[in-house]
Design a protein that fits this description.
The complex is a heterodimer of chains A (367) and B (351). By secondary structure, chain A is of the alpha/beta class. Chain A has 13 helices and 7 strands. The longest helix of chain B is centred in the N-terminal third of the chain and has 15 residues. Classes of the chains: A alpha/beta (367), B alpha/beta (351). Chains A and B meet through helix 7 and helix 8 of A and helix 2 and helix 3 of B. Bound molecules: thiamine diphosphate.
Chain lengths: 367, 351
């Protein structure tokens, strides 16, 4: 357990200050994929989960390849979180306005978008920062999605700010009635920011609880800093307890468990109109971002490999099918990337567009 | 005649009745207090927030995203500083989403010195606010302008920062807000909450008319030919008074209340400076990277050959705080005599 790993680190070097970073090995979760022999979901859903997980992985791999071949300046994304993020996407009530779910995401959510039915070309265009990037028109990094039609508020780089905004959309939804909820996601290191406490405080005001599904995907890293070195909390989900928020830590590397746990959490928030905190333990398979090389790591559990083994064992999927699926998506995204590479960048003069709503973009100064 | 605190209240009442304002909130904004400056007493949609400025700004952004119309208060602008990156985010959300997500939200906060507020109730915020693109920034100096600008702010579809000069909060105007009773004490009887138990109190709102003062329009409060004085907020009435005093010495100053800092009324400034050839910018924020410095840059860039004197800035001293004792505050922010001296010397200059 992470907890044990932290204890070990501390016990071994009780007086060192600052503590040496733990080695990656010490950060590893034990195998998190449930070894249970049962598959509690029906085959079509299992295959859908698998398909989307592979699709998301192939998309991220393509984005990384684009970065490495000079077709993008920076990569950050969600490989390693597919099991959880696909399950999340399948459970979202997609649409515009308070009757639907509001999404306050961070930058590792591509699998969720694909599960919601998003066209992967958008992520590829954003990677290449072309004018046709549907999320930001070439203004923002990869993985910084924004889609008003789906209540997906702009992903922004400052860590944790989304947790401060989430109660706002949830407040409108609570008043509006219906079962639309707000979902906020972020990493574990960011929970040290005050905005995480803001989210807990504002969504649990007595008698005014808000329908927020508060999610923390815990990969036990903040770039290079191991969680155990900087935070004493054993489980992020414990943070919710003091606020009377129903809270749970789950295995985010198991798509089946994640789907079942999330389903329960969604149902609770939708019907009770109260917050629920889910901490999902996940892997980080290509490091933090392109800044740390974006190479596959071999010392963390790969949710896809594990899931495929399990599906194979149960005769739901063959190795050949799995390989063919990977091949299909890899080819598809390579083709899409080739198209995006030929597309135009935004014109420099468009910097004046969308400074203010309702006004034509213009340079306010004579030059 | 309403004072600025009452004008805020009247405007918010109008805005929640007619302009779709859904939430007026912040620390102590709801009952029983109705705001530490009483700006939100008796309103329908007020509520008390947790003591968390980042939460307040984040909440306002979220409400705006979901189709509500929030007016959030930061109790003193001295405490808005820990929200700067959220303010940046609110200012760039429309831009960064390439025109998808605009945020109709108002943040109002009392600013500036003049109430012996010492180090943490005397800050200004105009210099910092004008460093954050994507916001409209206004700062009235009279009750009627407060009313009209706040209605304009509540109609905006972009974030608006509404800076209220706290030293002027209780100063009565000399123009009626349309609908307010003419008789002096009558308004107070209708809309000021009583001291003591307020649980049974309900305000009696006068029937108000809509006045929209467009954001971006300055107001000439005194015409003159020799020197232009541009100010806003607490220092504006001081400039007007200085101009009156100097008239007796034969100095003819034009005084402009900028009212909106972004966008600002360059046409009005330009026309006036072209006419007088001299300009003094006055505000009380610290003088280094002060908003007045931007206006001086614009003036020299565009009007250099029309100038008869170097543009002048009268602003707060670049020190870490405003001390409590009278002489400390007086030495830190522009005083009547500083403004008079600057106008006098600028008016006397010739190439
Ligand atoms: C407010 C802020 N501080 C620092 C950074 C730089 N930064 C980007 S990601 C990151 C680590 C985030 O870790 P975590 O919250 O665990 O999420 P993860 O990336 O591991 O999913 C940091 C420090 C930032 N973007 N924003």
């Amino acid at each position: 357990m992470v907890r044990d790993a932290r204890k070990m680190t501390r016990a071994a070097k009780p007086d060192e200050s600052p503590a040496k970073p733990s080695r990656p090995e010490q950060q590893r979760f034990p195998p998190m994929i449930s070894q249970s022999n049962e598959l509690p979901l029906e085959a079509p859903l299992l295959l859908q989960l698998h398909d989307l997980m592979v699709k998301a992985r192939c998309l991220e791999e393509r984005l990384i390849a684009m970065y490495k071949s000079g077709h993008g300046y920076f990569w950050i994304g969600g490989p390693g979180e597919e099991a959880f993020n696909v399950a999340l996407g399948l459970l979202i009530k997609k649409g515009q306005g308070p009757a639907f779910d509001y999404l306050h995401f961070h930058y590792r959510q591509s699998a969720t978008l694909l599960a919601m039915g998003e066209d992967p070309m958008g992520a590829i265009r954003q990677m290449k920062n072309v004018a046709a990037d549907p999320y930001s028109g070439g203004r923002n990094f990869a993985g910084h999605f924004a889609k008003k039609e789906w209540n997906l508020v702009p992903v922004s780089s400052p860590i944790e700010v989304q947790y401060a905004m989430a109660p706002g959309t949830a407040l409108v939804q609570k008043r509006h009635g219906g079962d639309g909820i707000t979902i906020v996601t972020g990493g574990d290191a960011g929970t040290a920011e005050g905005d995480f406490a803001t989210c807990l405080t504002w969504s649990s005001r007595p008698g005014q609880e808000l329908p927020v599904l508060i999610i923390v995907t815990n990969n036990r890293w903040g770039i290079s800093t191991p969680a155990g070195q900087v935070q004493a909390v054993e489980k992020v989900s414990d943070r919710g307890v003091a606020f009377g928020i129903k809270s749970k830590t789950i295995d985010g590397n198991d798509p089946i468990g994640a789907w079942l746990e999330l389903k329960e959490a969604f149902e609770y928030v939708r019907t009770e109109r109260k917050p629920y905190l889910v901490e999902a333990n996940v892997s980080r398979l290509f490091g933090h971002s392109s800044a740390s090389g974006a190479n596959y790591v071999t010392n963390e559990a790969d949710c896809i490999t594990r899931f495929e083994e399990r599906l194979e064992q149960h005769g739901v999927l063959t190795r050949a099918q799995a390989n063919a699926l990977r091949e299909k998506y890899a080819t598809e995204f390579a083709d899409l990337a080739r198209i995006a590479k030929e597309e135009a960048f935004p014109d420099g003069q468009t910097i004046w567009d969308h400074v203010f709503h309702g006004e034509p973009g213009r340079d306010p100064f004579p030059r | 005649m309403a004072n600025i605190a009452q004008a805020v209240r009247l405007a918010l009442h109008y805005a929640e009745e007619h302009l779709g304002v859904t939430d007026i909130f912040g620390e102590d904004v709801g009952p029983p207090l109705g705001g530490v400056f009483t700006c939100t007493q008796g309103l329908k949609t007020t509520w008390n927030s947790p003591l968390d400025e980042r939460g307040i700004i984040g909440m306002a952004m979220g409400i705006a995203m979901a189709g509500g119309r929030p007016v959030a208060e930061i109790q003193f602008c001295d405490y808005v500083y820990n929200t700067i990156d959220l303010l940046k985010l609110a200012g760039n959300t429309y831009w960064s989403s390439n025109g998808q997500w605009n945020l109709p939200m108002v943040v109002m906060t009392p600013v500036g010195s003049g109430i012996r507020g010492s180090i943490y109730h005397s800050h200004s915020f105009d210099a910092t606010a004008t460093h954050i693109p994507g916001w409209k920034i206004v700062m009235p100096s009279t009750p009627l302008d407060t009313y009209g600008l706040l209605l304009a702010a509540c109609r905006e579809t972009n974030p608006v920062m509404f800076l209220i000069p706290k030293a002027l909060m209780r100063v009565k105007g000399d123009e009626l807000i349309p609908g307010e009773p003419v008789e002096d004490k009558a308004l107070s009887k209708l809309i000021d909450a009583p001291l003591g138990d307020r649980s049974k109190w309900v305000p009696q709102w006068p029937t108000l008319d809509e006045v929209i003062i467009p954001i971006g329009k300055a107001k000439t409060v005194r015409t003159g030919s020799q020197v232009t004085v541009v100010s806003y907020g607490r220092t504006l009435p001081m400039c007007a008074k200085a101009a009156e005093a100097l008239a007796a010495e034969g100095v003819d100053a034009e005084v402009i209340d900028l009212r909106s800092l972004w966008p600002y009324d360059w046409d009005a400034l330009k026309a006036s400076i072209e006419k007088t050839g001299r300009v003094v910018f006055v505000n009380e924020d610290t003088e280094v990277t002060n908003f007045g410095e931007h206006l001086m840059r614009r003036t020299t860039d565009e009007l250099f050959y029309k100038l008869l004197a170097p543009p002048k800035l009268v602003a707060g001293k670049f020190v870490p705080g405003i001390g409590l004792a009278d002489p400390l505050e007086a030495a830190s922010v522009p005083q009547q005599h500083d403004i008079e001296a600057a106008i006098r010397s600028t008016a006397a200059m010739a190439p």
